[in-house]
Amino acid sequence: MERVEEYLEAIYDLQQREKKVVRTNDLAKKLNVRPSSVTEMLSKLSEKGFVEYQPYYGVALTEKGSEVAKRVKRFHKIFEVFFTDFLGVDRDEAHKLSCELEHHVNDEVADRVCMLIASSDCRACSDCDRTFFALSNAPDGQYEIMAAPVISQRIGFEPGRIILKSGNEITLILKDKKEEYTISHELASKIIVKSMEV
């Protein structure tokens, strides 16, 4: 599937840049492969419904192919931001690592990384709903805990729990009672929450 995704992503990039049907030779140059290899792959992609391909004319993504390409590009961007902004990895190395990872993760993994980066000043996705926050940065309101370090889980701050934030006071809402806590800014910065007031 990795090779399929590489082709779909390359076609998507060329379509966005050229705003027209993608030529086989342009795709061969971008992927650094022989035109005959491109022709063979395009026939397979067409059979699977990812592209509309006419020999000697060119190729365009179908809706199905476009969805896969956009998904892979989103994964790439999420990991690239994570590597550069959170781990301080050099941009070229981050790009290289993201190119590898984008084909080997699923939506759940990407969404979890996205939660981490969206809790700060996220720039990964233009259509992000920005409902995830680090608890320390979250405005007052009611939230569901999405991710938390083990140490906070020992006092009940674990994924799935509902909390209410008001200033520096955080109320953990349990089934039969409410418990108020004041936790350090450092710990609150490691707890990722999702707004329930959307």
How would you portray this structure in words?
It is built from 8 helices and 8 strands. It is an alpha+beta fold. The protein folds into 3 domains: 2-61, Arc Repressor Mutant, subunit A (Orthogonal Bundle), CATH 1.10.10.10; 67-118, Orthogonal Bundle (Diphtheria Toxin Repressor, domain 2), CATH 1.10.60.10; 132-195, Ferrous iron transport protein A (FeoA) (SH3 type barrels), CATH 2.30.30. The chain has a 6-stranded antiparallel sheet with strand order 3-8-4-5-6-7, covered by helices on one side. It has a two-stranded antiparallel ribbon with strand order 1-2. α4 packs across α5 (91-101). The radius of gyration is 22 Å and the shape is elongated.
List the helices and strands and how they pair.
Blueprint: H1 2-18, H2 24-31, H3 35-47, E1 51-54, E2 58-61, H4 63-86, H5 91-101, H6 107-118, E3 132-134, E4 141-147, H7 150-153, E5 162-166, E6 169-173, E7 178-181, H8 185-188, E8 192-195
Antiparallel strand pairs: 1-2, 3-8, 4-5, 4-8, 5-6, 6-7
Helix pairs in contact: 1-2, 1-4, 2-3, 4-5, 4-6
